[in-house]
């Protein structure tokens, strides 16, 4: 008797699994206006990183470039920060950030740097060498070569181990790069 009852139940389950799915109705275009857009990926990740890392520095402007510096197939972020908080007569700060899971890790926090910023054909400790322009602040002008030391890039391009270079590489941030504005995050009124 149990077998007689089980057979129709099995047939019903098989039939239910083999039914074609109904096509989803087209999205309601007016409803999409009410929903915030999804984050834009890695560029949006950098915005959040900067807002969290430097909450007192906003509003700020920055230039952003992407380049695989360590040859692992994933791009690092090169961020040139432009705001009085980071800039002086010698230049502004440049960050080199690498992905560390869902977060970003600084492998370069380079002071008194200027654009253009280039990635060289040479490498040190498995990472591409980079060059930043330096000028002002009473020091020499030109391009400073920065080599990865196994942990990070030099923090000051005007003193050793940074060195002046005439070599050219691939320019990733122009002398007058396109700047992105980051405004302070506003708290919602409850």
Structure description:
By secondary structure, this protein is of the alpha+beta class. It has helices spanning 2-18, 29-32, 42-53; strands at 60-67, 76-82, 92-100, 103-124, 127-134, 142-146, 163-165, 170-173, 180-182. Strands 1, 2, 3, 4, 5, 6, 7, 8 and 9 form a nine-stranded antiparallel β-sheet that branches. It is globular. 26% of the residues are buried.
Could you state the order of secondary-structure elements as H and E? HHHEEEEEEEEE
Report on the biggest sheet: 9 strands, antiparallel
Gyration radius (Cα, Å) is 26 Å
Number of E strands: 9
Mean pLDDT: 82
Topology:
Elements: H1 2-18, H2 29-32, H3 42-53, E1 60-67, E2 76-82, E3 92-100, E4 103-124, E5 127-134, E6 142-146, E7 163-165, E8 170-173, E9 180-182
The gist of it:
This protein is an alpha+beta fold. The chain is 17% helix and 36% strand.
Summarize this structure as a short list of keywords or feature phrases.
190 residues, nine-stranded antiparallel β-sheet, alpha+beta, single chain, globular, disordered N terminus, 9 strands, 3 helices
């Amino acid at each position: 008797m149990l077998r007689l009852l089980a057979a129709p139940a099995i047939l019903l389950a098989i039939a239910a699994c083999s039914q074609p799915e109904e096509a989803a109705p087209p999205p309601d275009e007016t409803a999409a206006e009410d929903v915030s857009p999804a984050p834009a990926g890695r560029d949006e990740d950098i915005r959040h990183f900067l807002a969290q890392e430097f909450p007192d520095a906003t509003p700020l402007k920055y230039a952003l470039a992407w380049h695989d510096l360590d040859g692992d197939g994933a791009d690092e972020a090169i961020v040139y920060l432009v705001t009085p908080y980071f800039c002086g007569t010698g230049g502004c700060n440049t960050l080199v950030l690498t992905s560390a899971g869902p977060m970003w890790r600084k492998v370069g926090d380079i002071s008194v740097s200027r654009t253009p910023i280039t990635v060289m054909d040479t490498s040190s400790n498995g990472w591409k060498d980079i060059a930043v322009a330096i000028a002002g602040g009473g020091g020499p002008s030109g391009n400073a070569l920065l080599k990865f030391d196994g942990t990070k890039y030099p923090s000051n391009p005007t003193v050793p181990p940074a060195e002046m270079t005439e070599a050219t590489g691939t320019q990733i941030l122009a002398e007058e790069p396109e700047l992105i504005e980051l405004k302070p995050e506003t708290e919602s009124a409850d």
